[in-house]
Amino acid sequence: MNPYPQAPQRPGGPAGDGPDPQAPGNLQAVDWRDFRDHIATADRDGRRRWLYPKAPSGPWHRRRAWFAGLLIVLMFAGPWIRIQGNPLLLLNVVERRFSILGQVFWPHDSAVFAVAMLVFLCGILVFTVAFGRLWCGWACPQTVMMEMVFRKVEFLIDGDPAAQRALAAAPWTAAKIGRRMLKHGVFFGLSLVVGNTLLAYLIGSEQLLAIQLDDPRRHWAGLAAMMLFSLLFYAIFARFREQACTFICPYGRFQSALLDTNSLLVSYDRRRGEGRAPWRRDQDHEARRASGLGDCIDCRQCVAVCPTGIDIRDGTQMECIHCTACIDACDAVMNKVGRPAGLVRFASQDHLERGEPQRFTRRMAMYSALLAALVGVFLWLVLSRSPVETTFLRVSGSLHQTLPDGRIRNLFSVKMINKSHRPLPVEVRLEHPPGSVRLLGATNPVVPVGQYLQASALVDLDPDRLTGSTTGLELGIYSGGRLLERVSTQFSGPRPRPATPSP
Ligand code: SF4
Ligand code: SF4
Q1: Residue 15 falls within a domain, yes or no?
Q2: Relative to the CA of 325, which ligand 1 atom is closest?
Q3: Which of 27, 141, 179, 229 has a Cα-to-Cα distance from 152 of 20 to 30 A?
Q4: How many domains does the chain fold into?
């Protein structure tokens, strides 16, 4: 029996690529309309089809609004929050200084970064396999700002979708110009705030304040970056909108490789919904079922609210950001016609086809184990990090020097980075072989938080401690008597004299 009796057929029958809509139980079967041949936001000639989505409302939207509110507060407060004096998040690529959750990282910590990146990628894998693109609709800053801030401003100034369409089609009167100027003025103001926030994440809040408050002539580059970011965000939120998710973001493109029939997705229950037909007040549910009709009343409310312009009834699509607006819209419709909610809901294909609950599959287990291992390595790298990182190298081109007392001296250059949250008084001791080490020009050296200490050092060794033209040295970096780090380097001495042959 055809489970989708109302599904229209592609002209000429089901020949061609794609699943057969006649296949029983095939929930991926589509109705062979041409929705996969072009994107929802362009017409056949490739011209942009501007979307006027309806304002979503309902329980899922309320949850999402609360969550978005929390994220927005975090996002804007992030650069100003300090943990033990360090920013919550700083990605200063110019000075190659990074702070994550108050932990300062330096370019030398590239292993930590590489593992952190792997943790991030693996986390995306696990999350997408289990929950599809929930990130996109709920946590991605682009969606959060677009749907929860800019779109709301648009509803406030331009009205509902019908009013927006009417305004777009209206001639350029003074009233329309005024409304457009107001909207785009607010959009640009918001983009300025977003652009400044991104800049604060890149250069730090102190630098941002300096750019904002100092003489502008001293901050041309900073001001240019600020304006560039603001214009970029204005272009994205005022014009580009959902196209950023469809064309630029790679995540939507590779999600199809990650999803399987066990992944939880925003899905239309085709078995229950087809065949779709308008609802008639005089028709009860049993009569409707008996005449081969399903619960979908083809009201298109799920399409009207979709911010990416797709029809969820066409199946899983790249454009779907899992914003759940269509779930709320359809539940409201089902409520009105006296049918249970959930015609569009979070469900896996296995659940829709066979009623199976989501399983913890072998694939999920493998990804989770990999993620756990990577998190373990990351934590080990972070927790075992020495609070100071030292390089101790012989000054290039310098020769050893023989002192009047016969000892051999080498000149070294020392660089120490303080990766901790407090100024570090440091002391360098020569651990092996016995000898002396002295930092020049710094009797009680202190390395400031998150900064370098650069100095020269003299190491003196007795000649009988030399093992050849180079001798390995082992030094200890101490703070308050506590060993922080051991460093090794090479000491240069005279070539050992060949043994004198006995007469
Ligand atoms: S199909 Fe539904 S969940 Fe997907 S983007 Fe559209 S409204 Fe959001
Ligand atoms: S909102 Fe529900 S009933 Fe209306 S068209 Fe969409 S799936 Fe069908």
Answers
A1: no
A2: 7
A3: 229
A4: 3
